[in-house]
């Protein structure tokens, strides 16, 4: 135990003396947490609309005014023909074309419904999909208003669907993203920095000096893991404070539960970093290998794309990543207030990850080659 | 207690087809300064790493401080000091912190750490530098410090791998004073070097060529045997026959 104390003392001194490392550990996560949630936003606004109004009637004007006032659309062009509007799409000045036929008003009055043609530039699939569905909602709304006015006896037919969104009532994207991004930041610090730290000792040659001393394997590994485990805890706490002060996200669930899961997660990720360091001889090598895995972990973690929407092979990869479970648990505890019973299976899986990754790393770390 | 500090018999290390150390046998007596010579690439460092418990021999047998190199590496590590070719102190720790760290992991008590640390700093004349980062010291001082740290726990044997490479003649002389002092205190010294004047300082020397030990004796006897005036000539006579190209 005394040996471990000397190892820790040395490690902390080195970390706090490293002018390059300190900002990476403490300032970068703060900046990322301030910037990323603002940019990683899937709300679609400012959809540019090219209008072809063949009708030029009161109703067509009313419809366009309604679309324009929705806040999602900007009418950027009024063209006379479809090919002209298409040019707008080709030059990327418009995202969606809306074409109102010549007898729109007439049909509306006669039949209570008029055809409108929509064409969307689907290169940006999200924008096209969401834009079209917003437009459909506006059109349906417009249609029912007209029916109310013209054919009051036929109104109020059909099923009225009302949905309410739980745990994130305003569908605020940030509430969904911030907890996930916080996980990624902690992952980067522990997965990367710990791996690079050990490989640097290999590069400089000090690890050989350690290997020739009676320091035990577990002492050396604990000496490397404990400092970064503590740093992970501190980073996470800073992140939670930012989430609260900047984004107003206050964890609904139990903080002890959250930190309990975090502490296991950090052990798993540090084991991952350690494993990479045992296979790498240079920091460059360690960085690329760690980068390769962490990118896959992040993209497949359910942060951006829901794991449920992935194909089977995607789900398999997602389930093989320790990051996936923490993002899930983080959202469950922070947003939903889930309790121990809800997270015990992911917790168990995370413990298994921690044991496998660390066990593998310890087996692969050799004092004698 | 074993009278021999190091015994090795038929020690061999292969990396694939390449035989880095080819069936070497020798003994080092307790308390002697043993020079381990050879051209670059002759296999000196590989042999030394096996003796320090850093690398497993492919075949043969060896014991260091009485402990087997195959099974008792951790016991060997308690009883040896090692100074590698690469500088191995932490450059971003101060002189004092390095001494404390290495002393600490070798199990010195707090009292010993303080006493030995101060003694060492005074001996090396580093009083003014004790709070400086080791990275800021000139190479010669670093090497002297590294050597002193390698024997801070008073090991039975200390292994030095080219400790004076790149160091000026005056500092080299001072370095050898430290080596003699360590030998006088009962530490067996196992040292590799390329400087033939340093070879003369050793009690006995071995010369490795292509992974084999081609000569082993006192410097005086070797000179006599090869009818040479200096160790330089002995080394030339032996190393000229080397088939491996120097790196």
Automatic annotation (TrEMBL), chain A:
A Gene Ontology cellular-component term: plasma membrane
ABC transmembrane type-2 domain sequence ranges: 135-368
Calcium in keyword set: no
Compartmental location: Cell membrane
Stored PROSITE patterns: ABC_TM2
Keyword tags: Cell membrane, Membrane, Transmembrane, Transmembrane helix, Transport
Spans through the membrane: 21-40, 175-199, 226-250, 256-276, 288-307, 345-363
Record's bilayer topology term: Multi-pass membrane protein
InterPro entries: ABC-2_transporter_component, ABC2_TM, ABC2_TM_bact-type
GO molecular function, one term: ABC-type transporter activity
Entry similarity comment: Belongs to the ABC-2 integral membrane protein family.
Record-given protein name: ABC transporter permease
Higher taxonomy: Bacteria, Pseudomonadati, Bacteroidota, Chitinophagia, Chitinophagales
From TrEMBL, chain B:
Regions crossing the membrane: none
Alphabetically ordered keywords of this record: ATP-binding, Nucleotide-binding
Species for this entry: Chitinophaga oryziterrae
CDD domains per UniProt: ABC_DR_subfamily_A
SUPFAM superfamilies linked to this entry: P-loop containing nucleoside triphosphate hydrolases
Taxonomic path: Bacteria, Pseudomonadati, Bacteroidota, Chitinophagia, Chitinophagales
Protein name: ATP-binding cassette domain-containing protein
PROSITE patterns for this protein: ABC_TRANSPORTER_2
Every ABC transporter domain range: 6-235
Record carries keyword ATP-binding: yes
Superkingdom classification of source: Bacteria
GO molecular function: ATP binding; ATP hydrolysis activity
InterPro entries per the UniProt record, alphabetical: AAA+_ATPase, ABC_transporter-like_ATP-bd, P-loop_NTPase
């Amino acid at each position: 135990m005394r040996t471990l104390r000397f190892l820790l003392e040395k490690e902390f001194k080195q970390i706090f003396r490293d002018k390059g490392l300190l900002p990476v550990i403490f300032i970068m996560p703060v900046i990322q947490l301030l910037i990323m949630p603002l940019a990683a936003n899937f709300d679609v606004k400012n959809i540019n609309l090219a209008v072809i109004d063949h009708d030029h009637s009161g109703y067509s004007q009313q419809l366009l005014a309604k679309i324009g006032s929705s806040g999602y659309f900007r009418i950027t062009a009024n063209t006379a023909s479809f090919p002209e509007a298409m040019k707008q799409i080709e030059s990327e000045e418009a995202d969606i074309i809306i074409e109102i036929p010549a007898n729109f008003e007439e049909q509306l009055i006669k039949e209570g419904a008029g055809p409108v043609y929509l064409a969307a530039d689907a290169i940006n699939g999200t924008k096209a999909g969401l834009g079209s569905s917003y437009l459909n909602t506006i059109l349906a709304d417009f249609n029912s208003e007209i029916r109310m006015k013209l054919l009051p006896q036929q109104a109020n037919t059909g099923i009225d669907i009302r949905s309410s969104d739980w745990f994130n009532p305003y569908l605020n994207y940030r509430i969904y993203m911030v907890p996930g991004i916080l996980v990624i930041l902690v992952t980067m610090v522990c997965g990367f920095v710990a791996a690079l730290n050990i490989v640097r000792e290999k590069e400089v040659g000090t690890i050989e000096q350690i290997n020739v001393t009676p320091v035990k394997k577990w002492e050396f590994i604990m000496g490397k893991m404990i400092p970064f485990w503590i740093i992970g805890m501190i980073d996470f706490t800073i992140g939670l404070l930012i989430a609260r002060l900047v984004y107003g996200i206050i964890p609904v669930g139990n903080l002890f539960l959250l930190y309990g899961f975090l502490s296991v997660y950090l052990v798993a990720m540090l084991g991952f970093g350690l494993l990479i360091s045992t296979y790498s001889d240079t920091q460059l090598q360690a960085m690329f290998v760690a980068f390769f895995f962490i990118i896959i972990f992040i993209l497949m973690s359910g942060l951006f794309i829901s794991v449920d929407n992935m194909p089977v092979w995607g789900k398999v990869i997602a389930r093989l990543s320790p990051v996936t479970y923490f993002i899930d648990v983080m959202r469950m505890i922070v947003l939903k207030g889930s309790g121990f019973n809800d997270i015990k299976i992911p917790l168990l899986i995370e413990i298994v990850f921690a044991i496998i990754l660390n066990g593998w790393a310890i087996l692969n770390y050799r004092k004698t080659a | 207690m074993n009278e021999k500090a190091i015994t090795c018999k038929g020690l061999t290390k292969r990396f694939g087809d390449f035989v880095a150390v080819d069936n070497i046998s020798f003994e080092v007596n307790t308390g002697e300064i043993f020079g381990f010579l050879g051209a670059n690439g002759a296999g000196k460092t590989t042999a030394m790493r096996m003796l320090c418990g850093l690398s497993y021999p492919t075949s043969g047998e060896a014991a260091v401080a009485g402990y087997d190199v195959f099974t008792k590496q951790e016991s060997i590590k308690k009883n040896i000091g090692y100074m590698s070719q690469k500088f191995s102190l932490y450059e971003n720790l101060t002189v004092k912190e390095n001494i404390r760290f290495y002393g600490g992991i070798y199990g010195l008590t707090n009292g010993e750490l303080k006493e030995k640390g101060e003694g060492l700093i005074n001996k090396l004349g580093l009083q003014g530098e004790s709070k400086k980062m080791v990275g800021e010291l000139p190479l010669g001082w670093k090497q002297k410090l590294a050597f002193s740290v390698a024997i801070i726990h008073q090991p039975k044997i200390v292994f030095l791998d080219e400790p004076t490479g790149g160091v000026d003649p005056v500092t080299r002389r001072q370095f050898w004073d430290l080596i003699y002092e360590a030998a006088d205190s009962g530490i067996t010294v196992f040292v590799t070097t390329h400087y033939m004047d340093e070879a003369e300082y050793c009690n006995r020397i071995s010369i490795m060529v292509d992974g084999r030990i081609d000569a082993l004796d006192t410097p005086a006897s070797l000179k006599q045997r090869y009818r040479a005036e200096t160790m330089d000539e002995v080394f030339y006579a032996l190393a000229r026959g080397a088939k491996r190209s120097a790196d």
